[in-house]
Batch of 2 targets.
Target 1
Amino acid sequence: MELFLLELPKAELHLHLEGSVEPETLHELDPATSVEEFRALYQYADFDSFLRAFGAVGKRLRGPDDYALITRRLLENLARQNVHYAEIIVAAGVVLWKEQNFTPIFDAIAAAAAESPVQVRWILDAVRQFGPEHVMQVAEMAAERVDRGVIAFGIGGSEQRGPANWFGDAFSFARSAGLRLTAHAGESMGPESIWDALELGAERIGHGIAAARDEALMRHLRDRDIPLEICISSNLVTGVVARIEDHPVRRLYDAGVPIVLNSDDPAMFRCSLTGEYRLAASHFAFTQSELAGLAQNSFRYAFEREALP
Ligand code: HPA
Ligand code: ZN
């Protein structure tokens, strides 16, 4: 099984660049803070404390060189796992919040990606709780870079503190600029949050695990062929799912909802894409042929039509 999973050509569709930074790398960037202190930052009492830690990691990244370094490290890791294609989410909203210039940062990560064997596309992501003007600004930053590998626009952060209905204008604008659309939804809130994201035009849903509580929504996702970007370890570590046996991945799959496995924030959740496939096998009885189907889904539901295993 281990060799099978490693050799399976895979794509990552839900992977945050800033969530891929290992404590050792943070220590390299700031030698005055020990690796142990950074490891302690990666412990979360609840979902909001994870979001604060994610913001704190972003704050540590000082500029283009730091972003280039973390991109190279992430892509090396993906190549070792036989990941052929990745849509990497960049917290452009956090760059805005830090009042750093995004242009040289994007140039640096794009240059780092150009040197990797992994095919990369970018998803620029805004912070829901920062409000509609912030989210529109990120949509504009994404629109300016559609010809440079930015394939989609998305929203993350707190569903509670940033309801989807604030963002209709930003999503319409992004769509008209040629961007594909995704939204984190139904992660820490219920099915209505997913319905609201679909109303915005989201073509994939980040997490979306709450769909398992709504039969009509599962039928809708199945019939419209809208995939959920499932991240099992993430949900356990942030506490939105209490125990692994409570995770709805199998129920969603059996209901015919399209799913793709992803790592979300691999360093912050101490997981890997290959490990997510391993969990699906060990805890949810996915067979090798089902896992091969999920790996095919990871290419099929890529926003890039040219994404090939
Ligand atoms: N959910 C919301 N915001 C995030 C996440 C997530 O899984 N990862 C990084 N920012
Ligand atoms: Zn995420």
Target 2
Amino acid sequence: MKRKYFMQKATAVGLGLLIVFSVIACKTEHTTEEKKEAIKTNEPSVKPLVIATWNTPLAVETAAKVLEKGGSALDAVEAGCRIEEANEEGQSVGKGGLPDRDGNVTLDACIMDDKGNYGAVLCVKNIKHVISVARKVMEVTPHVMLVGEGAEQFAVSQGFERENLLTEASKKAWEEWKKKSEYKPIINIENHDTIGMLAIDNDGNISGACTTSGLAYKMAGRVGDSPIIGGGLFVDNEVGGAAATGLGEEVLKTVGSFLIVELMRQGKSPQEACEEAIARIVNKPNSDFKNFQVGYIAVNKKGETGAYSIHEWFSYNLYKNGENKNIKSDFILNRKK
Ligand code: SD4
């Protein structure tokens, strides 16, 4: 009797479990279908596309050419950033960047591909194309970040050449600065600053890159947001990407680029997400936002873009439908007037 009761119970439990597993299996199948559908409807209607911080027409054109020839978004953002790193007139990226307080130019860069891989170098001296070193970190090392001398040694081992990054113009500017040694973050430098770049290639894949000499006359060893994942840059190929410029300390405290991508994941447009990320900085208790600049750019999987800053004069270059334009960003102080 007892055995019969046990057998009946076991059969009932078994059947129950079967039903539960079948339901889960059906649900999983359905979810995968839903996911595929979601990705399909998210496919960019505008590709290829490049967006980059500030007035960077040549860098964006260079990236766009890579994409138009069928190259990957990763190759495009690297090629675009290299243009600014080699441009000695730009005093906030690569060669010719303004030095730290001690007169040393130290560079930061990071790169992210469409598979969620990331590589970065921080506080590197004597190597111009740090964006390419960051890519090497991502592709040939088991690590994601290399710093200072280790990063420089790694670069040399990969065939990068050491060179003096301090140009005469930047040395002069530093010597002028030393007379007062007054440290203040400068709000907008010449409408041309750190470059953060995002691209969508013909396969609809997104990658991003960010490269900078950081804040002018920073303390030796200081690193900002630009090479930090989620700070100066974040890419999620299923959602979109974001990049930052401006006072890195403030971007880091709100993990700005990651925040923007997560907001887009929750359904915000790139523009709404950039606005919310700026609002997070400005609305902090005792925020000193009137005295510093932060600007964001973003793109989603559909190829919609957004940009927003605290102060006026942040702009970005956008390559879309075969046209490369510099566009002035809207800014939060415009609404707070
Ligand atoms: C930094 N975000 O090192 C960089 C600097 C920058 O516009 O973007 N300046 O904080």
